[in-house]
């Protein structure tokens, strides 16, 4: 296999940035935290370098970095406001933060995630910002599913469920006129880190922008609706968001009036990714993956807002 030239060069950039921050850098091993076609992340000491997806717009990324730097009470602050070009990729630099421990679900910081989201959604937008890319990411997941040669049987209900969504949720039309909030665009617990003895902060600005704030609640809402997130954990997240004055949902009315479409879209996106991965790995869907596909099948026959049924 041909070595990937990006990794050693990205590592060298991370080391240089770490040394510029700390001349007495302990210089331990540099670790690859993530390496896939759309993102590569390496760590040297307390510095992280991230190579963003190919084709990332430099002007849009610069605006997103500026927004993150302006809101250090929500986002981890980037070390530099200017991306570096490396082999056709844009690279940004960040302090290293400890991520959520996936092996300790009882310690999952649902309340912190919800409070950060509410704070972000209440923040006035300063200057120009791109559109939040959540729907565009969902559309790409469906495009990759369609690109599979012979359509797998499991993909049929997923494609049908996708067709029932409004055009804006499929990135085929502008977002509603009410979409004026600052949104993360890809919220899940893997997007939280914290510095030593510090509070939790959001990371990953690739999808940050102006949009429909309910989209940021959509992944946990979808997991809850599909039966993958216990009701207690959903309640912790949702109640904390409301308590923090989150504007995505009404304060005293049915939240599913606004959560239903984003939750359905994230369910379809998740199913599409799962099927594509299973096809690439030449295996059958596992139990969890099949349950998400089954949820898509039920969504086709259920009118909007009947959230309590499409996961059963």
From TrEMBL:
<protein>
    <recommendedName>
        <fullName>Aminoglycoside phosphotransferase domain-containing protein</fullName>
    </recommendedName>
</protein>
<dbReference type="InterPro" id="IPR011009">
    <property type="entry name" value="Kinase-like_dom_sf"/>
</dbReference>
<feature type="domain" description="Aminoglycoside phosphotransferase">
    <location>
        <begin position="75"/>
        <end position="251"/>
    </location>
</feature>
<dbReference type="InterPro" id="IPR002575">
    <property type="entry name" value="Aminoglycoside_PTrfase"/>
</dbReference>
<dbReference type="Pfam" id="PF01636">
    <property type="entry name" value="APH"/>
</dbReference>
């Amino acid at each position: 296999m041909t070595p990937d030239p990006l990794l050693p060069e990205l590592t060298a950039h991370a080391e240089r940035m770490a040394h510029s921050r700390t001349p007495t850098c302990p210089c331990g091993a540099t670790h690859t935290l993530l390496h896939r076609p759309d993102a590569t992340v390496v760590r040297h000491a307390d510095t992280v370098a991230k190579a963003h997806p190919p084709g990332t717009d430099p002007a849009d990324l610069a605006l997103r970095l500026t927004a993150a730097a302006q809101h250090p009470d929500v986002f981890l602050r980037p070390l530099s406001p200017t991306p570096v070009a490396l082999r056709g990729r844009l690279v940004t630099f960040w302090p290293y933060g400890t991520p959520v421990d996936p092996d300790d679900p009882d310690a999952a910081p649902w309340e912190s995630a919800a409070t950060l989201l509410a704070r972000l959604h209440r923040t006035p937008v300063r200057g120009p910002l791109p559109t939040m890319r959540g729907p565009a990411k969902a559309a790409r997941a469906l495009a990759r599913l369609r690109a599979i040669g012979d359509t797998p049987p499991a993909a049929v209900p997923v494609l049908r469920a996708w067709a029932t969504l409004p055009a804006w949720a499929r990135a085929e039309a502008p977002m509603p006129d009410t979409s004026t909030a600052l949104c993360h665009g890809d919220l899940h617990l893997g997007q939280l880190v914290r510095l030593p003895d510090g509070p939790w902060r959001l990371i990953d600005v690739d999808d940050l922008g102006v949009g429909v704030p309910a989209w940021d609640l959509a992944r946990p809402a979808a997991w809850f609706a599909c039966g993958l997130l216990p009701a207690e954990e959903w309640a912790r997240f949702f109640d904390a968001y409301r308590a923090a004055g989150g504007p995505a949902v009404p304060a005293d009315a049915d939240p599913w009036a606004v959560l239903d479409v984003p939750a359905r879209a994230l369910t379809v996106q998740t199913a599409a990714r799962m099927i594509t991965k299973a096809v690439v790995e030449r295996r059958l869907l596992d139990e969890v993956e099949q349950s998400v596909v089954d949820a898509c099948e039920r969504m086709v026959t259920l009118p909007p807002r009947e959230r309590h049924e499409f996961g059963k």
